[in-house]
Amino acid sequence: MAMSRESLAFVFGIIGNIISFAVFLSPLPTFYTIFKKKSAEGYQSLPYVVALFSAMLWIYYAFVKREAALLLITINTFGIIVESAYLIVFLIYATKKSRLSTIKLLLLLNVFGFGAMLLSTLYLSKGAKRLAIIGWICLVFNISVFAAPLFVLSKVIRTRSVEYMPFFLSLSLTINAVMWFFYGLLLRDYYVALPNTLGFVFGIIQMVVYLIYRNATPVIQAPIKGQELSGSHIVDVVKIGNDPNRGGGAVSKV
């Protein structure tokens, strides 16, 4: 007996949840290092603040949507818990300057930014119009996150080094984008499906670039600081001397 559209969507959503769960946990080695060193110096909080904001957006969208939204709620609830835990650890061990900048960023984006969006959609719109507004906000935000790796690609091409673009992370995020694309497509939820189309395309491009430059001779450059934002997951890269530190937060799992 053929599976119904809803059943297939549930299967893709479950797989998407599993992959997203693993991606959310990928920064654990980074935070173990921070805990062990009792210092977050050299790391940045931006990826985790943005990942928390993304999870907040999607869980709000899911609660407003209600229908067939369980899998969006489960993974993004987990995301909010995990990203909050990362930020708490970061704030405990960050320098005073980093701590203050992180608090300012949290207030600006996650408190006032999200609060303004929440209040405006609650009081200035209703029903299908409210869902459409929230959906477009989520869609545009996801597209901007998925497009961010293009900056990393230019760095890889310029330095001929794939140090900042782990292949298996790119592969995982590409598969994740495929799962959520079909989940959204089968449920006719194009706010979920459309940005993941770009996530898949950009993921393929990343892997092709990786294969081209994986055995290339790197161009030696002075130590720099940068950020890598991969697909629905932001990877913060800080290179100090010969000690590259990588951490990330899952921006969006849909």
Keywords for this structure?
9 helices, 3-stranded antiparallel β-sheet, 71% helix, mainly alpha, 254 residues, single chain
Characterization of this structure:
The protein is mostly helical. The chain is 71% helix and 9% strand. It has a three-stranded antiparallel sheet. Strand 2 and strand 3 form a beta hairpin.
Question: How are the SSEs ordered, and which strands pair?
Answer:
Layout: H1 5-25, H2 28-37, H3 46-65, H4 70-93, H5 96-124, H6 127-147, H7 149-159, H8 167-186, H9 190-213, E1 225-230, E2 233-240, E3 243-250
Antiparallel strand pairs: 1-2, 2-3
Helix pairs in contact: 1-4, 1-8, 3-4, 3-5, 3-6, 6-9, 7-9, 8-9
Summarize the structure.
The chain is mainly alpha-helical and 254 residues long.
Distance between the termini: 29 Å
Count of DSSP helices? 9
Main beta sheet strand tally, sense and closure = 3 strands, antiparallel
Return residue spans where pLDDT drops below 50 for at least 5 consecutive residues: 223-252
Q: Could you tell me the mean pLDDT? A: 82
Q: Spell out the helices and strands N to C.
A: HHHHHHHHHEEE
Structural class: mainly alpha
Shape: globular
Number of strands: 3
